[in-house]
Amino acid sequence: MSWRSPPLGVVALLLLAAASTLPAPSRAEWAAVPDVNDLVIRQVGQFAVLVYGLAHRKDLAFLGVVRAQTQEAVGGGTNYRLVVAAAKPGDDGRPAQYDCLVWGVPGSRSDTWKLRRFRKIQS
């Protein structure tokens, strides 16, 4: 008994029909974090300032998180969109605000976290 494969057109139609029944990938919305002093949020902010400072040889001191939002990341983990306050030592303590985007998995090793964006907000 020999088995014959169906014509390519039939296979394509079956795949198209199966794909049309799959739910569309959802794009998670950004959710505001009500407590910017939450330990995890503060740690994410400190991580962003530290990594940026090391990568760009900038001496910045983390002062705090001003605003924070989270989003479930496609493929797992969490995206963190933060506005952090940081100051350069000896800069009369004048803080600047920075827009940050960090991806990570809470509770995982720090080397798995990624700083995606860190830019000064012009005042």
TrEMBL record:
Domain Cystatin stretches: 35-106
Is Signal set as a keyword in this record?
A: yes
- Give the signal peptide, or none: 1-28
Record keywords, A-Z: Protease inhibitor, Signal, Thiol protease inhibitor
- Output the Gene3D superfamilies linked to this UniProt entry: 3.10.450.10
| GO MF annotations in UniProt | cysteine-type endopeptidase inhibitor activity
Annotated family: Belongs to the cystatin family. Phytocystatin subfamily.
Would you tell me the protein name for this molecule?
Cystatin domain-containing protein
